[in-house]
């Protein structure tokens, strides 16, 4: 049985991913654009404004909020330097306190705050995060350009993390060998794999480590 082809812009899981962040990936971006097969117009260029919730005590659950909806992904495994993440929780605001207690804050791996209501709006939730010593809400704006190389879903993106501009490139697929070939074709061999959670922590100073360049 042959491998199942991925369709860019549509959900498919579980995938493995290579991603890196830095100041300049002009060469990789050029190669990606030239090696890509044609992709749907809807992924040529996409914009989004998101809020990531980062925790000093958690590196395995990635939480972001977009359009009033929360999405938490959890780290599953690493194979040949590639990371696999799966959905852990999806919810939207206003959010029931039971969901916050039983799903959201356990994913942050922090001390549980005191709750005084049965339901919280996004603004009220962010106020709880603001007052928690181990949590920080981070604004992340994305301008993403989609491609497909070697049957892997790829992108180059301009990203603003609390206003700080960085660039990210990635390749993801259910097939590890396809990603490894893409990394080689994009001349990114040896460039550190950095996920969004790690990149954000580095930019805001929660982790004392630089990006890839």
Architecture overview:
With 213 residues, the chain is of the alpha+beta class. It has a single domain, classed as Hypothetical Protein Pfu-838710-001 (Beta Barrel), CATH 2.40.320. Helices cover 23% and strands 40% of the residues. The protein contains 5 helices and 10 strands, in the order βαβββββαβαβββαα. The chain has helices at 26-35, 97-108, 122-130, 176-185, 196-204, and strands at residues 15-22, 46-55, 61-66, 69-79, 82-92, 95-96, 119-120, 135-149, 152-161, 164-173. The chain has an 8-stranded antiparallel barrel with strand order 1-5-4-3-2-8-9-10, surrounded by 5 helices. A two-stranded antiparallel ribbon has the order 6-7. The longest helix is centred in the middle third of the chain and has 12 residues, at 97-108. The N and C termini lie far apart (41 Å). The mean pLDDT is 95.
């Amino acid at each position: 049985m042959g491998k199942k082809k991925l369709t860019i812009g549509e959900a498919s899981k579980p995938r493995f991913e290579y991603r890196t962040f830095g100041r300049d990936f002009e060469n990789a971006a050029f190669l990606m654009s030239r090696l890509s097969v044609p992709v749907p117009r809807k992924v040529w260029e996409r914009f989004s404004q998101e809020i990531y919730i980062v925790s000093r005590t958690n590196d395995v659950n990635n939480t972001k909020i977009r359009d009033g909806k929360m999405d938490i992904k959890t780290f599953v495994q690493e194979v040949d330097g590639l990371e696999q993440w799966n959905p852990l929780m999806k919810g939207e605001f206003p959010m029931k306190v039971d969901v916050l207690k039983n799903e959201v804050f356990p994913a942050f791996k922090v001390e549980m705050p005191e709750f005084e209501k049965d339901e919280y709006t996004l603004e009220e939730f962010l106020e709880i995060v603001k007052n928690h010593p181990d949590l920080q809400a981070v604004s992340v704006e994305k301008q993403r350009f989609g491609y497909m190389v070697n049957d892997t879903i790829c992108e180059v993106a301009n990203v603003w993390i609390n206003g700080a501009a960085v660039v990210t490139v990635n390749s993801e697929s259910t097939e590890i060998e396809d990603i490894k070939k893409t990394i080689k074709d994009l001349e990114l061999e040896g460039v550190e794999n950095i996920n969004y959670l790690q990149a954000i922590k580095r930019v805001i100073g929660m982790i004392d480590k630089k990006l890839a360049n």
